[in-house]
Amino acid sequence: MMRILLAIIGSLLIITGTASAQDWAEYVDAEEHFAINFPGIPEVREFGYESEYGITLPAKAYTLENDEASYSLTVVNYNAGQKIYQELPDRTDEGNNSALWLYDQRASMSYAAHNIRKRGGEITFDAWNHIDSVEGHQLQITNADNSRTYAGMYLHQGRLYIIEAIVPAGGLPQGLFQQSLSFLDDDLRRIRYQLTVDGSKKRVPRPGGEPDTNY
User: Fold this and answer.
1) CATH code at 169?
2) Around Cβ 23, how many Cβ atoms within 10 Å?
3) Element (H, E) at 86
4) Does residue 215 fall inside a structural domain?
5) Which one, of 81, 93, 79, 91, lies nearest residue 55 by Cα?
């Protein structure tokens, strides 16, 4: 059974019919190796995510809505991709490419960003981003009804994390929700990296001299 921890930041979380700004708490999912701030406890749903190259991958959506905004985090497990491709019946020369699973995973952030852009609206921010030196991409879009979409995509250790917040016209910006995601190791310790110019990265050691781990 999935192990989920809910940690409270600052003061005790009081859950009411609608969450206020003081209700934010850190939500931790050990199985999917992440922590993120939500204004309450999100609903969790498992589903199949169709990749750019047409395979269906296991995914989970964490969603919460209140009067201020709708919040979601989608986690897609691309680690299953190689096995899924190996089990596909012969299709085309491209479909039989032994590296197709790798292309699918490496392009997953671009594909997720493309799917958000094609909904329409005025794109006001569209750029590279990182969280703890895990590289990603962020989007901000003004929609046709003047609501605002704040989105971020990050790929870490075979999992694609898609963050999205949609606020009504005049609502508060949700950049902090975008940036509240953190990546966890098997011991639920936050992972941070030192990023180099060639894209390689080394995990920042914890206080006390924990050995560096390359990824």
Assistant:
1) 3.40.1000.10
2) 16
3) helix 81-86
4) no
5) 81
Phi, psi of 196 (to 5 degrees): -110, 170
Computed over its alpha carbons, how large is the radius of gyration of the chain? Answer: 18
Please count the other Cβ atoms lying within 10 Å of the Cβ belonging to residue 45.
11
| Residue that is written with structure tokens 């920042």 in the block | 204
What are the residues whose beta carbons fall under 8 Å from the beta carbon of 89, sequence distance 6 or more?
none
The answer to the question of residue 183 being in a domain is yes
CA torsion 96→100→101→103, rounded to 10°?
180
Domain count, the chain: 1
C-alpha span between 123 and 49 (Å, rounded): 25
Tell me the pLDDT tens digit for each residue of 59-80: 999 999 998 899 999 999 999 8
Note whether residue 211 is domain-resident. Answer: no
Residue 65: domain span: 4-203
What tokens were used for 68? Answer: 């201020």
Could you report the per-residue pLDDT of 176-199, keeping only the tens digit for each? 888 899 999 999 999 999 988 887
Whether 113 contacts 123, CB under 8 Å: no
Per the domain annotation, does 210 fall within a domain? no
